[in-house]
Write a structure and sequence with these properties.
The chain is an alpha/beta fold. It has 14 helices and 6 strands. It has a 4-stranded parallel beta sheet, sandwiched between helices. Strands 3-4 form a two-stranded antiparallel sheet.
């Protein structure tokens, strides 16, 4: 008799709990993330974790880099004419340079052709010459160097936008071009490591980024060459090279670089920079490397001025470039 009363009281208490909206024990376990008999809470919690990983801090769904959705929201533009490129859905860091520039601009890129200087790679005006006036008149501290393009027209505007107007997305195109167009030079020289020409920390803070370091990172991702960060450092803030003659440029960057102590470099070394003009900056870096026992030094840059082109040497200072609309300085 007492057993029947206890069973009826239990049924009554269960109905009472359900009538007040209380959950059963299994439901309570599930609500607190505890494992139920069928394991459904574990599956739900795992799905929540996966969904959380696909969201940013604000709760919005992350967009995978290189996806079609990314390119629709943030379309890539041609680094020369700034027209929107058709979406492809592939990661820009894996594309060929032809997939990062429009077809019209790809046909008219001011690529350096022969004849070019056998020392620094500047395009020459006379087929009978072997060296540009700078290399014929003086001695450089580097072994050999090459550039891809002439610093002129649309490419000049593209470089200025990249350096002074935060167009860092152009770096994928330039890194791809350096890898593909500069491939024969890299294979022939057999370089073992990459040193970006450093910017002064004060300049990096003003601009917000070091374009040569970012270019070197993307370049080394493609070539698999070791990138040596903060090994070659800039110790002195130099004035802009604009308006300075060859001797003044050399004096401006003399003793402006240093090599990190007790760091062994593997030769041959490749210096990477964006623009080559008179070679004063490259020479200043090479002087420091030679003082530390490095003898075989090559360089590779995006562009250089044509041999004897004094107008191309008049690179704008940062203030002028920032004021120019779209980064163009005509």
């Amino acid at each position: 008799m007492g057993e029947k009363q206890s069973r009826s009281s239990n049924r009554y208490s269960n109905r009472k709990r359900s009538s007040y909206g209380l959950r059963s024990s299994n439901r309570n376990k599930s609500s607190f993330g505890l494992r139920s008999n069928d394991g459904s809470s574990d599956r739900n919690s795992n799905s929540h974790r996966r969904s959380d990983r696909n969201k940013d801090r604000s709760g919005h769904r992350r967009v995978r880099p290189g996806s079609l959705l990314t390119e629709l929201l943030y379309p890539l533009r041609c680094p020369m004419c700034q027209r929107v490129l058709p979406p492809s859905g592939s990661d820009p860091a894996l594309r060929s340079w032809r997939g990062l520039v429009c077809g019209d601009c790809a046909k008219h890129l001011p690529r350096i052709r022969e004849p070019y200087c056998l020392k620094c790679g500047k395009e020459l005006n006379d087929e009978t010459e072997e060296y540009c006036p700078d290399c014929a008149a003086g001695t450089h501290f580097f072994t050999e160097g090459r550039s891809l393009f002439r610093y002129e027209k649309d490419l000049r505007g593209s470089i200025l936008r990249m350096k002074f107007h935060n167009k860092r997305e152009y770096l994928d195109f330039y890194a791809a071009a350096l890898q593909e167009m500069g491939g024969p030079f890299l294979k022939r020289t057999g370089v073992r490591c990459v040193l970006p020409v450093p910017a002064h920390p004060g300049k990096t803070r003003e601009r917000g980024y070091d374009q040569c370091l970012l270019l070197a990172e993307k370049f080394c991702q493609r070539t698999r060459l070791p990138l040596l960060r903060n090994v070659l450092i800039r110790t002195r803030y130099t004035v802009p090279q604009k308006g300075l003659g060859t001797q003044q440029r050399r004096a401006n960057v003399r003793n402006a670089f240093a090599l990190k102590k007790d760091f062994a470099l593997t030769e041959p070394v490749l210096l990477l920079d964006d623009i080559y003009t008179t070679g004063s900056t490259i020479d200043a870096c090479c002087r420091v490397l030679r003082q530390n026992g490095i003898r075989t030094i090559f360089f590779l840059t995006i562009c250089s001025v044509r041999a004897g082109d004094t107008e191309g040497m008049e690179l704008p200072d940062e203030t002028t470039a920032r004021k120019a609309p779209g980064g163009f300085v005509r």
